[in-house]
Amino acid sequence: MPAPKLWRIALAVPEAYAAAFAEAVGDHADAVSTFELEEHVTWLVEATVYGEPDRPRLTARVAVLAQALGIPDPVLVIEEVPPIDWVSHTYQAFPPIRAGRYFVHGSHHEGVVPAGSIGLQVDAATAFGTGEHGSTKGCLLALDRLSRRVRLGGGPGQGALDMGCGSGILAIAVAKTWRVPVVAVDIDPEAVRVTRENARINGVANLLQAEGGDGYHTPVVRRRGPYRLITANILARPLARMAPLLARNLVPGGVAVLAGLLARQEKHVLQAHRAQGLHLIARIPMGEWTTLIVGR
């Protein structure tokens, strides 16, 4: 007996009523979720069910709820989900990415790394950072730019730190570009595991020390610091909050790459670092995301 086909139920509703509509359609589904479409305005309620749902009953239930809430009937989408070869789909979703001299690719890439490029093999996994996101790509472009003007070494005050390493892509890029020891830290143990594995795959396990801990308070950060280069692809608020600690861990003449912030958050993050005696060297816009290079 063939397996039942997968169907999708979706509707966009005001933020205040997302939970109510999720409950209404959830009774007809195997899984339901909600996503913000427009900040503080509209949410998408999306559900999936095996086997065709009862369209008339579902339509009536949504209409009754909308009437009770005093809002227009939302457009209800009920459609069959086409079968997908998830392996091929995943590979196609992550084609090789160029960011300056960096060539980021997954293990499925069958070609060669272009001449003159620095290859970074990173698969989509359980930790953030495969190069396709604007903030990660902006960081790689920043590192490519800095590689022509910043010298790193293995001595005190000459090394590099990747704060919030995720998949380890930035720490690996630093290690392969400068061939120097790099400290990588993340609060998530899974990110630490993934970073170590990716360092092994990319042949820099001997240069990269990945540890879990509480940011700049992590013992290895204190023991190996201060640093000439710090990368921090996190989020705007943590970046601003951690600015004093970043400044303490950056040697005179050192530089930091800051990312994970939207263009509208740039001013707030920059002000926090300027208050610590750091100045803006460059900004790299990537769509709605911005990467900042600051120095002291």
> How far from one another are the termini?
68 Å
Shape, principal axes of CA atoms:
elongated
Oligomer: single chain
Per CATH, the superfamily of the largest domain is: Vaccinia Virus protein VP39
DSSP summary: helix tally: 10
CATH architecture verdict of the largest domain: 3-Layer(aba) Sandwich
Describe the structure.
With 296 residues, this protein is α/β, with parallel strands linked by helices. It contains ten helices and 14 strands. Strands 10-9-8-11-12-14-13 form a seven-stranded mixed sheet, with helices on both faces. A four-stranded antiparallel sheet has the order 2-3-1-4, with helices on one face. A hairpin with a 3-residue loop joins β2 and β3 (42-50). α1 (18-26) packs antiparallel against α2 (55-69) and α4 runs parallel beside α5 (169-178). It is elongated. The N and C termini lie far apart (68 Å). The mean pLDDT is 88.
Question: How is the topology of this model organized?
Answer:
Elements: E1 6-14, H1 18-26, E2 31-38, E3 42-50, H2 55-69, E4 77-80, H3 86-93, E5 97-99, E6 102-105, E7 118-121, H4 134-146, E8 160-163, H5 169-178, E9 182-186, H6 189-201, E10 208-212, H7 219-224, E11 227-233, H8 236-241, H9 243-248, E12 250-262, H10 266-274, E13 279-286, E14 289-295
Parallel strand pairs: 6-7, 8-9, 8-11, 9-10, 11-12
Antiparallel strand pairs: 1-3, 1-4, 2-3, 5-6, 12-14, 13-14
Helix pairs in contact: 1-2, 4-5
